[in-house]
Amino acid sequence: MTASYFTGDREYFPGIGRIQYEGRGSDNPLAFKFYDANRKVGERTMAEHLRFAVCYWHTFCARGADPFGDDTQRFPWDDAPDPMRAAHQRMDAAFEFFTKLGTPYYCFHDRDMAPEGSSIAHSENNLAAMVELAAQRQQSTGMKLLWGTANLFSHPRYMNGAATNPDFAVVTHAAAQVKAALDATVALGGENYVFWGGREGYASLLNTNTQRELEHLARFLHAARDYGRSIGFTGTFLIEPKPMEPCKHQYDFDAQTVIGFLRHFDLDGDFKLNIEANHATLAGHSFAHELQMCTDAGLLGSIDANRGDPQNGWDTDQFATDLYDAVHAMLVILANGGLGHGGLNFDAKVRRESVDLEDIFIGHIGSMDTFARALEAAFAIVDNGALNAYKLDRYSSFDSGDGAAFTRGALDLTALRDLAIAGGEPAHTSGRQEWCENVINQFL
Ligand code: XUL
Ligand code: CO
Predict the structure, then answer these.
(1) Which CATH class is domain 20-384?
(2) Which residue intervals of the chain bear CATH 3.20.20.150?
């Protein structure tokens, strides 16, 4: 154990050092086979392209409980006499983990980092104390904050919603929490601030005024935006869509729903989207589809790069290991010009049966290797150019002449009809999907 990896007074992952790149031939489960942080892919290093972030909640707070069974994970940082001491130990463990894994970023909810107190002021003080410690740990390790957020879904007061609660008193408590979480995010130099609306939705229309709830949500987000800007937050606010779970129906259903909401309520100048792979599939979309909708709108903010299970209809939050899916995602990310100030946050947890501390490292290593391979494959596909050239050519009838006049709005419906008569039956043109799919396989 060398001092540079070790920020606290106790080692929580003994026997594990800094994870090294050993290459594809290595059979060391605690080594990268493909992720080589400083390796250049085009103009940027892998680390610069991928901007990995570890999530605080699954990694250090989730202990494997499910609706049918208790905790299975036994974390050494939990053996504390009181909640603040436990929070302190958890933070030491977190920064030891971040540094050993070699990710540049992390993400947290207020309640992951500091326990709720007996009053709002008590909770604010708990968080402020932990933020002070986190700032020191960031300073000594070089770790950075990708985003902060407030947990507005665990406490029973939020059972009917937070910003969309029918009771104004609950909305004020949600505001208190967001204010403190914004203070924390700014104090830690966070590059983004996330809203995930787990309880912002409804179970029955019989007791719900959806119109009022959506207007309240927009009001709340405007107030949060104004406060954030007033304390010097220059980063991006992000909404993370998810169609359901825990609510039956959630307002931030998917990317296109959120994009429409942001534009309708004049929030799209400050807000972008945080796309989670498992939420995309819950909405009946592919991960790449959701990324593409954001890219098209200029609103891709950041990514929770996990995966679901194709047979399960819930949020399993598994580590991403599907190379094909990751290549599709990286193609969109490269077309977007990269992640900007966003990153790839894992938002994944080991299975409740994976109870060794090293399993947490192995899960993260697997995802990092998957995205490193996907980056190289996607970069090579773009570099090869055949797919992009074909896609461009497919729309070439709009590039000049009458097609271009149509896109400029210069042709009315009657003029279009006359062109149909003059042109006769259109050519029978293949979409060549099989060829496109084969091109991808060629680069895996
Ligand atoms: C829940 C989820 C959250 C958000 C942050 O499904 O993804 O962890 O990422 O609140
Ligand atoms: Co998420």
Answers:
(1) alpha beta
(2) 20-384
